[in-house]
Structures are given as C-alpha cells and as structure tokens.
Amino acid sequence: MYAFDTLEMLELAEASLVKKAENPKTPQGEVRDIQSRLHECRRHLRMKREDKFRKESGISVRGSDDYIGAGAGDYSFYYGYEVTYCPVKSHKNGSLCGEKDCEKEEWCFTADKDGKEIARYRTSELTIGHEEVDQMLILGMAKFIKENMK
Ligand SMILES: [Zn+2]
User: Fold this and answer.
1) CA of 136 to the centre of ligand 1 (A)
2) Which whole-number Å values give the CA distances from 135 to 55, 89, 130, 142, in the listed order?
3) How far is the CA of 70 from the centre of ligand 1 (A)?
4) How confident is the model over 71-104, as pLDDT tens digits?
5) pTM of the prediction?
6) Contact present, 127 and 139 (Cβ < 8 Å)
7) Which residues partner with 62 through β-bridges?
8) 124 C-alpha to center of ligand 1: Å?
9) I need a surface site. Which of 53, 101, 132, 143 has the fewest CB within 10 A?
C-alpha cells in the first residue's frame, strides 16, 4: 500500500500512525495493527530514502552471493557469474563451459563508462586466492585505479 507513495506522503503517514499509537484513547486491540502498519511504513520510508540518496550521490552498490555491482556517476563496476572467460576456444568465452563440465572458466570483473565496457579482468588477474565477490569487486576497482590513475 506504500510502494507508490512519495517520501513526503510516507513521512506524513508515519507521523499519523505514531500519533495514533501513542494516543491513550486508541483501543489496545487496534494498537497492534497500527504497530504493524508503522513497521511496513518505515520499511518503505527507508527504501525511498535509500533510493533518493543513490540518485543524489550518484553512488550505489547491489549484489548477492554470486555477483556484485557498484555505480559511481558515469562509471559502473561488476564482478560475478554473468561475465565469464574460458581459454578453450570451442567454449565460446564461457558460454558452453556449464554443459561441458569445464573447470577453466573464470568469472570476470568489468568496468563500464556510459554503459560501454572499458576494462575487463579475469579472476586470475586479480588474485591467486579464493575471495568473496565483494572483495573481488574491490580488487577489480583497485587494479582499474592502479592502471588508470597515473
Ligand atoms: Zn570452458
């Protein structure tokens, strides 16, 4: 019910729910319902504020177990399963490695500017260890900075 509300509407809804919950005249039976609506309202408020922050600051991060991406103005950075490399020519850069039970496939880091790829590093170019995806993203960004900020 709050998903399409503006930040201002959510702030008003929050204030009104708090007022109702704190009013001694509000029946106890209703207070629990108000608390759960308040919880939901605050969750949406938090998402809206995060959204606003991402837009205004131009920086963002999103990810999961198997990928991570970060935005920095016109630049974006990615590491994960969606971009792979395989040295075996017939595996067509990783797209057939799954079918062939290939162990040579590597996930890649990419840097984009204005939606165009400007750098790509294989996992083995970033580490000889086994790092988590967030650390791989940082390593990719570190290599990108090292090579481009001279
Ligand atoms: Zn392969």
Assistant:
1) 21
2) 25, 29, 10, 10
3) 27
4) 999 999 999 999 999 999 898 777 788 888 899 9
5) 0.77
6) yes
7) 69
8) 15
9) 101
42 alpha carbon – ligand 1 mean position (Å) = 47
- Residue 149 CA, ligand 1 centroid: distance in Å: 33
Task: State pLDDT tens for residues 62-71.
Answer: 999 999 999 9
Express each pLDDT in 104-143 by its tens digit: 999 999 999 999 999 999 999 999 998 999 999 999 999 9
How far does residue 123's CA lie from ligand 1's centre (Å)? 14
Per-residue confidence band for 150, with pLDDT thresholds at 50, 70 and 90: confident
CA 143 to centroid of ligand 1, rounded, Å: 25
Give long-range contacts, CB 8 A cutoff, 24+ apart: 130-137.
133/63, 133/65, 133/66, 133/67, 133/68, 133/79, 133/80, 134/63, 134/68, 136/68, 136/79, 136/107, 136/109, 137/63, 137/68, 137/69, 137/70, 137/77, 137/78, 137/79, 137/109
Distance 89 CA to ligand 1 centre (A): 8
| Spacing, Cα 138 to ligand 1 middle (Å) | 25
